[in-house]
Amino acid sequence: MAVQRVSRLVVAVTAFVVLIVGALFSRPAAAVPETVFQSVVSVLPVWPDKPQAGGGTPLGAAPEGSGIAIAKGGKIVTAYHVIEPAERVDVRLHDGRIVPASVLGIDKPTDIALLEIEPDLPVLPVADSPALASPACVISNAYGLDLSVTCGVISARHVSNAGFNPVEDFLQTDAAANPGSSGGALVDSQGHLLGMMSAIFASKSGMNIGVNFAVSSELLIRVAGELSDGGAVKFVSAGWGLDVPPRSDLAKRAGVLVIGLEERGPAQNAGLRIGDLLVNVRGRAVTFPRDVLSALASVSPGDQAEVVFVRDGQEQTAVLQFADQTAKREPQTDRQAANDDCPHLAAVCKTRQAVFPVSAFDPIGSSVRIGEELLVTNRHITADQTQVTVYTPTGELTGEVLPSAYEGDLALIRVKGLPKDGLILKVRDPDSLSGPFHSVGADISQRKVRVFPQGELISAPADSAPLGRLHVTAHMQPGVSGGALVNAEGDLIGIATSGGQGRFEAIPLDDVAELILLRGSPYAYSTFEKLGATLRKCKVELEAVKERKAALTNGQADELAELCLSSENYGLFQEAGDTLGRQNHLPEAIALHQAALKQVPNSLNSRLSLLTAFQQAEEYKKMVAPAHVLLKLRPNSPLVLRRVLQAGVLAKDRSLAEAALVRLEALGGPEAKQARRYFDRAESLFDGSQ
To answer: Domains in the chain and their CATH numbers?
Structure first.
C-alpha cells in the first residue's frame, strides 16, 4: 500500500474518536457473499533483486498486491505502484492456481494498472454511490496471507487531497487495509464493487489507524476502459485557471475561484468569467482546485459536465461541453490555462513570485525568498562577494550576503525593498517527497523567471551524506541554480543546484535551516571568507584551463586538484574531476570524484564520472562497486544500464553484466537488442570468471 505516516497525537485522537463513534453506531456487518472471492486475485510481481511470492517464500520477503476482475476477457485492475518496477507479473486465483499476467496499460496519475490473464473471471457488479457510514468491506491479499475480508464503514466520499496521486477520487474507509491490500476490492454488503484499495495513512510504527483510501468505482471503470482500448487515458480540460479565494471572501462562501480562462475553451464557451466562484461540479461541492480536478477526472472527451457558480451574489448554472480535441494527456483543471507563459498548476506558477534572478561572482543565477528581507541562493553564485544584485519586476536592488558557518553550497542574502505583498516560500519539512516536482528559476534566453518541465524523485539524500542532495528528473538549466524546487502544491522542497541529461539535484531544506542557524556561529565570517575565496580561485583556474590549449603538467594538475578540494564544494569537485579526466590526469580526477561521492553518496553524475575515470585508467575491477550502486539507484535508465553492462564486461563480472542486460531486455526496444549483441560478443571474456 502507498503509506503516509502521522503523529502519535493524531493516532491517539483518531483512536478516541473511532471508539466513541463505534460505541454509538456499531452494528454487525452483513456477510459478504463468498462468490466475491472469485473476482479478486493476489498479484505476485517480480521486482529486481526480490524473490517472488507464491512458492514458499517467507512472508514479507516478496512484494505482493491484489487485483479485481473489472471486465470480461480476463481483465484485472490493480494499483500501478504494485507492479511499477516489476520484470514479470503473475496472478494467484481464489482456488490457488497461479497464472501469468500481461500488462495492458498503466495510468500513473490515478495509480491504476490493467492486467490480462487467460482465465475469464466473473466480474463484480458495480454498487451505487454509497452513503456515509454505510457498511464496506475490503477483500485483499493483506500481508501476502491470501485473500481475506475486513469490514468497516464509508468514512468519506470524493476525497481529492489525500496527497498520494496527482488525480484522486477516493472513498475513505476504516475497514482495515495493510501491505498487500493495494489493488484489492472495496465492496458493499451485497458484494458490489465500491472501489479499488490504493493507499493508507499509518502511524509511525506502521500500525493501521483506520484511514484507508480506495479509488472510486466510477474513476476506476473509466480509466480501465480507456486502457483496455489500448490508448492513454485522456483527461478533459475546461480551459480555466483556478485558485482558492482570499481568506476574507471565505467568510461569505466557500468555493473555487476562476482566475483565468482559455480563449474559446469549454469554460469560456459555457459563459464563465474570471472572478466567478465555483461551488458545485457534477453534483459535488467544491472548496479546493483539486476537488474540481477530481470531479472532472471521470468525464471523457465528448461528454459534458454541469457546474454551479456564484456571480454577483447569485447562483448560476453552466454546462461544459468537452469535444475530443480538448482532451489532454494530463488533467488541466486547475492550471493557468489563460496564461500560455505558464502551462502548469496555478499553485506552481504562483511560486515565480518568490524567485528572483541575482548576479554576483556568477553573472546570473536565481534566489528564493524565504523571509520578508531574506533570500537564499547557491554559494557558487556569490563566492566571496559580500554584495549581490537582485533583479525584481520594479528594478534592481542591492543585497548583502550574510556570513554563516554552514559549509555547503548555500548563501543567505538580506535585501530591502522586495515587494511587500509578494509570496514567501516557507522553509519546513515537506509532508512527502513524492513528485511531481518543478524547478523555478531564471531563463537566461527568455530573460524571465519561469517554471520548467516537471520530473520525479530519483533518490533522497543518503542517510550518511554530510551534505546530501535530492536527486530528481525535474529539468534545470544554466540560470536556475539557486532557484526553487517545488511540488504540485507549490511547497518549497529544495534549492536547485545543477545536473544534466535528466539527472538534476537540489539541496534539501534541512540545509537551509542549518544555514540560518549557523549565522550566529563565531566561525561564520571565517567560514564564509575561506570557502568563498577558495571557490573563486578554483573556478577561475578551471576556466583558464578550459581556455588554454596546452595540457597541464602533472604538477599543475596536482595543484589544481588540491585547490579545488580545499573549496569543499561538491559541484567544483565534479567539474574539476571531469576537467582533469579529459586531460588524462586520472589519479587527480578519481580523487575529486571520490571526494564528491563522500559528500553526496547518491550522486549519479559523480558515480558515472568515476566509472569513466576508472575505465580510462584501465582499473576495471574498481568499476564494479560504483556500477552496483548505479544499478540500484536507476534500474530503469537505459543510459545507466548501458554503462553498468559495460562495467561488468570490462571487469569480467558476469553477474553484474547479466543484471544490467536483464533490465535492458525488460525495457525492450533497439537498445535491448544492441545490449544482447554486446554481451554475446563478450561471452568469451567471462571464461574462468564469476
So the answer is: 2-228 (2.40.10.120), 240-340 (2.30.42.10), 350-516 (2.40.10.120), 555-686 (1.25.40.10)
Q: What is the mean pLDDT of residues 623-648?
A: 89
CB 114 within 8 A of CB 76: yes
Burial of 254 (0-12, 13-18, 19+ CB in 10 A): middle
User: How much is the pTM?
Assistant: 0.52
Task: Determine whether 182 is an active site residue.
Answer: yes
Cis bond leading into 135, ω under 30°? no
Q: Which of 39, 182, 481, 637 is catalytic?
A: 182
What whole-number distance in Å separates Cα of residue 120 and Cα of residue 39? 10
Percent of the chain with pLDDT over 70: 88
Average of per-residue pLDDT across 26-51:
75
Q: Determine whether 359 is an active site residue.
A: no
Query: Which of 39, 42, 66, 81 is an active site residue?
Result: 81
Answer yes or no: is pLDDT of 577 > 70: yes
Instruction: Name the catalytic one among 90, 107, 111, 491.
Output: 111
pLDDT the model gives residue 458: 87
Find out whether 578 and 572 touch, Cβ atoms under 8 Å: no
Model confidence pLDDT, tens digit, residues 416-439: 999 888 899 999 888 778 778 999
User: Nearest 5°: CA angle at 564, between 549 and 626?
Assistant: 95
- Maximum CA pair distance of the chain? 85
Per-residue model confidence (pLDDT) at position 359: 93
Does the annotation count 81 as an active-site position? yes
HEC assignment per residue over 430-497: CCCCCCCEEEEEEECCCCEEEECCCECEEECCCCCCCCCCEEECCCCCCCCCCCEEEECCCCEEEEEE
